[in-house]
Design a protein that fits this description.
Number of helices: 22
Number of strands: 2
Helix content: 55-70%
Order of helices and strands: HHHHHHHHHHHHEEHHHHHHHHHH
Distance between the termini: 56 Å
Length: 468
Amino acid sequence: MTINFIYSIADTYNLKLEVVRFGLVLISGFPLAFVFSLIPSHCHTIKHSFSFITTSLLTILIFSLSAYFHLISICLLIYLVAATTRSHSWSPILCFSIAIAKMSYVHMNTQYWNYNNPNHIDYSSMMMVLMIKLSSFGYCAHDGTRNLNDLDSYQKSLCIRKFPSLVEYFGYMFCFVGSWVGPGIEFNHYQNFITSTPPYDIHPKTAIPALKCFLGGVFFLLVESIFASQYHFKLCLTDQFLHEYTLLQKCIYILVAGVVVRSKFYAVWKLSESVALIAGIGFSVDPNTHDIKFDAAENVNVIGVEFGENAKMMIDSWNKFTANWLKRYVYNRVRNVNLKLPITFFISAFWHGFYSGYYLSFLSSVFLTQAGRTLRKQLRPLFITPSPLAFLKPIYDILTWIFALFVLNYLFIPFHVQAIDSSLLIWGNTFYIGHVFLFLPLILFDFIGIGKVLKKVVIGTDDKTKVE
């Protein structure tokens, strides 16, 4: 009956089946969050059970029993591995490896083995969220057995000292808040939320912030539905783009298409954030000022992405929970300094799947990060007081904003086009202009050393001043 209903909606509104499925689970989150908020704070087991049972039923009804079996079986396996081996240093690596192997199977099943199968049910998005939870759980469970003096501040706050029961564990893994599109919250945050441990011992009014997120999600859904047929990176393969547009027109198109493509992600993340706020888990309390901030479930800062001063700010504002996961459990855990960044970007691409375009985008992003660091270190000080060029800083900020946004859009064309040959065709048709912008600062400053010459312009400034 549910399957027929899903097919009926898809046929009536000419929508993809996966769009209908995720639309239904996102919409279902709102009544579930409202009901959850009515459960008395001391009923911890009921809260865990509510999360697990409702998400399980939705997964079976909207996706399939087979999908549910795959998801729950990997959760049970990781629980058993962590419970029996967490005191060993290799335990979190084993948990990480098992989780990523399972996720790889799910990606291969969707992206290759059943690529042209219209009846295939894609639950890879839910597995991606579970991958974050499972791997972070493995590390936090291990950190809970270590000496606190060996942990940094984040590890101390996130380590699991008391291993959870199955009810607590499955309540966390299948929490209806963010189960399908994120955010992938940490176990201790979830546990504090359920047990009303600070900051969740207070209950601020979240109606207005939740409404703002909901309206924002609806707005970006409209943007995507209205403009996606005209602006998308895949349309860069059309004859009009390849042979009729000038280079300037192509660059402008890439800038606009990037906004439209991201609107779909903005929409689902803002709707998911709204659900978290209604449920009561979407806020935080500043430890110094005790001010309440409604950003604890914010997976994307739209202003930061679209109007960030540099690429770093834009990247840091995008898919924030995944970025935190990569930082805490990949970047910070890699001991070789020279391998930290490449391995992190590789795991990020691996997490998304196996389309060749993913790796082209993420590996290219390594150079984007380095170019941004070079510009902030050697060029930006020229436009900061007491430099004689400080009056030009507004112009510098505008130019670096356009530069960063364009290069970011350009580099992630392969992510959406997915195939390397098509991606290289688009890049080549724009004379690899994004790569020129990317490597020019590295060549001029890091290899030729033009920064030493430019320092003469800023004589009198404090060369030791650190630029963030």
